[in-house]
């Protein structure tokens, strides 16, 4: 379980760069395809990587 947690933490780090597509992130973490990565991410966090990225972008752009 800790291996999955480390992979997902790495995924979140990689998602901070818009240059990294979900497909590229999945491949770099060793997933056979984007769907496998998306399922694993959703199991861990309850949302898909795309939704996480969209929500994070909204938070980053929130005026203080």
Structure write-up:
Helices cover 70% and strands 0% of the residues. α2 crosses α3. It contains 4 helices and no strands. The model has no long low-confidence stretch (mean pLDDT 90). The chain has 64 residues and is mainly alpha-helical.
Largest sheet: none
Oligomer: single chain
Poorly predicted segments: none
Helix share bin: over 70%
Shape verdict: globular
- Strand coverage percent: under 5%
Structural class: mainly alpha
Give a quick precis of the structure.
Helix 2 (22-28) crosses helix 3 (34-45).
What secondary-structure arrangement, pairings included, does this model have?
Elements: H1 2-15, H2 22-28, H3 34-45, H4 49-60
Helix pairs in contact: 2-3
Overview features:
mainly alpha; 0% strand
